[in-house]
């Protein structure tokens, strides 16, 4: 199983410097990978460590290498990649502060669920505010219908009587 995480280079690396006002993409994909059985046998912290390690490996040299590779071969075709799930945290992208002249935004995230490099298999962490103005995070999850139905059942079961961390992760992973 593969989990793709977007890692931004904004403000992290010195070369190449981004021109003032540049608004294009400045990220690379970090990939955490493990057999499904291994993920099920270990506590949730194991999977989190894999993601943390993958994101930590995105160095300035890695970013340059990705830029060179894409210039030579084009963008990768994620639709051919099986057992892959995309996680995108846009909570620090600044969408909630953008004003195009008609006031602050109500929402800043994907317009529809089947977007991104892996349509139908993605998760977006999006900043939001409730009616009282309290800040929070919306976790938008996109899965194929059958997997989403199973995920909802497992989540409802976990919320009714929370099992221990290892069992929780095993239930969620086996549901997917």
Automatic annotation (TrEMBL):
UniProt name for this protein: Benzyl alcohol O-benzoyltransferase
GO molecular function: transferase activity
Record-linked Gene3D superfamilies: Chloramphenicol acetyltransferase-like domain
Top-level taxon of origin: Eukaryota
Pfam family, one: Transferase
Family: Belongs to the plant acyltransferase family.
Native organism: Linum tenue
Keywords: Transferase
Regions annotated as coiled coil: none
